Each structure stands twice: as C-alpha cells, then as structure tokens.
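My current task is to audit a protein record that another person submitted. What it holds is a sequence and that sequence's fold in token form. Thanks in advance; the entry in question is below.
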Amino acid sequence: MEHVPFIAVEGPIGAGKTTLASMLADLLKFPVIKEIVEENPFIDKFYQNMDDWSFQLEMFFLCNRYKQLKDTVSEFFDKGKPVISDYHIYKNLIFSDRTLKGTEREKYREIFHVLTDDLPKPNVIFYIRADLDTLLKRIAKRGRSFEEDIDQNYLQQLIEDYDAAMASLAIREPATRIITIDGNTVDFVENREHFEEIASHIKELMV
C-alpha cells in the first residue's frame, strides 16, 4: 500500500474539496471516492439543532466513511490501483470534537479508533485553506438547502479546527505529505495554471 498513490483533499465546509478531487481524478484517470453528505438523514436536523442531533449525524458519517475506505482497500489498493478521495477519515474527529461533549465524545472517539486505526492513510493531503467570507460565498453558490442554516461562528471555528488538525496530522502521520492551498487566492477551477501546479505534486509522487 505504501507505494500506491492515495491522495486526499481536505478543508472546511465549502472549500472546494469535491471539485478539486474530481478534477484531479479526471486528469490522472484515477478513481475518485466522494463522501456521502446529502444522504445523511440527520443533516437537516443537525443544522437546526446541533445539540440534539450531533451524535446521530457523526455516527452516520463515521460508519459510511469506514465502509467506503474498507471497500476501497479491496477494490483498489489491494490491486495496486491509486485513488483520490475528497476527505481524510481524520475529519470525523475534527467535526466530532467540535459538536460532541462529555461521554458522547469519549464513546465516539473510542469507536472511531476501533474502526479506523488500521485503515490506509493518504500519501498526500491537499489542504484547501480559506477564510470565512470565501467559504460563505462558495456555500451560497452551490445552493444546498440544508446549509442555509449554518452558523457562521461554527464555520469560523471549523476553519481554526482544521488548521490545528493539519498541524497535528503532520506530527501523527509523518509519512503523509500535506500541501496547503490558499483557497482565497488560488482558483483551480477558472485558472488552468493554478490547477496544473496542484496536479504537478501528484505527478512527482508517481515518478
């Protein structure tokens, strides 16, 4: 597995993770793994009342992401095939540490480690970092109804949580290369040069 390219794209809500992952997968002819979001039956309730629905929401995401990555191992990694994903499984702790409290958080963390500690880790993470205004514009542009209720304070805190998490991952997973993209100034959708510069990092990995 260590020689099979596994690329993850990460960042807060609205950063452009799925867009970039899809573009890279199309360029490199890699399969792309996309997280399930809108299919989560608790997401509308969560944005309306985080305290009541956080645990259900986070457990649904964890179980689905675990199943996706287990399937990815057998379908791709075991056959030496590279993969691009629009998330890193570690994001479950970023969100759950913000939304869960007390014993629920402790129980969740225990379940997380039991399920994920032996899953493959990415060789490269593209971390799209963007400020609140940029994220809000992108969230509004994609027009998901359930995101209309996102609390701006929650989103700002996620930005800070992601910064801390990427710093932690750099220590926890030293074999994973983390490449930070300035989502406020880098436009990988409209500017081909910006996109090709990002893609060049993966091509270096495959040499």
